[in-house]
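Lab notebook, design round three. We kept the backbone fixed and only want residue identities now. Task for the bench partner: fill in a sequence for the structure below.
Input structure tokens:
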């Protein structure tokens, strides 16, 4: 296979060169150019024709987000953003970036090597497979749906990874305050999930927050599993759904894991749940969604044509976990249709 051609864009010459050195050690990567600002990056893209670009958000002459907004309509390119802990990363994803990594506060060469090997290289390789044409198609207008069957103790569980931040927004912004309580795992570094929850809360009719142990899963609200070293599970206390966030080892390479959440929903909610698996690399959530289906839950998988990365939904579909495979824009309508039959 041909190596992935990578363009590195960062205004720090030291960090830039260290990234180049460490990325170049992987035989699957060929660093074809570097740039210190968007204007150099534009010229390098035309000259080097990279497969993937890494992009610092804070750049001189033009910030990375503005650059993305100008770049993507003219030259669609998989971009992995390197960002400090800031909600500007979600503006970058909205502008067309495939994924992001948290910029490390490194104090040694060994720490940087670890960051590149275990985080940045993984994201670059995933981004090289992404369908860029789908990134800007995620926001689709829907007619407002309504839940006719009320009073039942129902649950909606959602899992996603690469491309999921915008996909989740595309789905839940169509939900009204009558939607049953929602629990979500989106693979994301620690710190960013709280900012993502606040962002969704500002853009949706439902209430959204980062989950804490003991939080109740109430109609018209959504709880997002905190990024880091804790898995989120659904529990039932005195007849009321709650979540537990407990430390544990990675499952399928992830913590929190979609499988852990879905397995708990299968145990606790059984047939009173709808499970939704969205875009993402790998197979996390597929077995859990199958457990949900076997327990009587209704299940939905995002289709290949609208996924940024058709990984998790494909594995789930191949396992027989997906009852309804839908385009991203049709998932809210299907969710309401299933809930209204429960």
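Proposed sequence:
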């Amino acid at each position: 296979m041909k190596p992935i051609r990578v363009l590195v864009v960062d205004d720090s010459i030291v960090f830039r060169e260290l990234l180049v050195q460490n990325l170049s050690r992987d035989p699957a990567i060929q660093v074809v150019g570097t740039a210190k600002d968007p204007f150099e990056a534009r010229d390098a893209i035309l000259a080097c024709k990279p497969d993937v670009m890494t992009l610092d958000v804070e750049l001189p002459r033009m910030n990375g987000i503005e650059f993305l907004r100008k770049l993507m309509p003219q030259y669609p390119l998989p971009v992995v953003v390197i960002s400090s802990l800031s909600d500007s990363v979600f503006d970058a994803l909205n502008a067309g970036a495939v994924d992001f990594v948290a910029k490390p506060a490194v104090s040694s060469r060994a720490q940087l090597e670890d960051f590149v090997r275990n985080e940045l290289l993984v994201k670059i390789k995933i981004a090289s497979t992404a369908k860029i044409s789908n990134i800007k198609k995620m926001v689709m207008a829907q007619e407002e749906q309504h839940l006719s069957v009320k009073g039942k103790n129902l649950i909606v569980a959602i899992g996603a990874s690469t491309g999921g931040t915008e996909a989740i927004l595309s789905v839940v912004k169509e939900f009204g305050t009558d939607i049953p309580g929602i629990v979500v795992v989106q693979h994301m570094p620690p710190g960013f999930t709280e900012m993502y929850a606040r962002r969704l809360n500002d853009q949706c009719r439902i209430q959204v927050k980062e989950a804490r142990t003991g939080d109740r899963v109430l109609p018209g609200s959504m709880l997002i599993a905190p990024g880091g070293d804790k898995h989120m599970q659904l529990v039932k206390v005195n007849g009321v759904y709650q979540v537990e966030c407990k430390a544990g080892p990675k499952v399928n390479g992830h913590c929190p894991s979609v499988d852990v959440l879905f397995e708990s929903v299968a145990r606790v909610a059984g047939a009173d749940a709808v499970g939704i698996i969205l875009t993402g690399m790998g197979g996390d959530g597929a077995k859990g969604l199958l457990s949900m289906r076997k327990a009587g839950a209704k299940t939905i998988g995002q289709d290949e044509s609208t996924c940024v990365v058709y990984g998790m939904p494909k594995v789930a579909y191949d396992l027989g976990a997906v009852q309804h495979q839908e385009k991203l824009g049709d998932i809210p309508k299907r969710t309401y249709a299933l809930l209204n039959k429960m």
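Keep this in mind before ordering anything: The chain has a mean pLDDT of 90.
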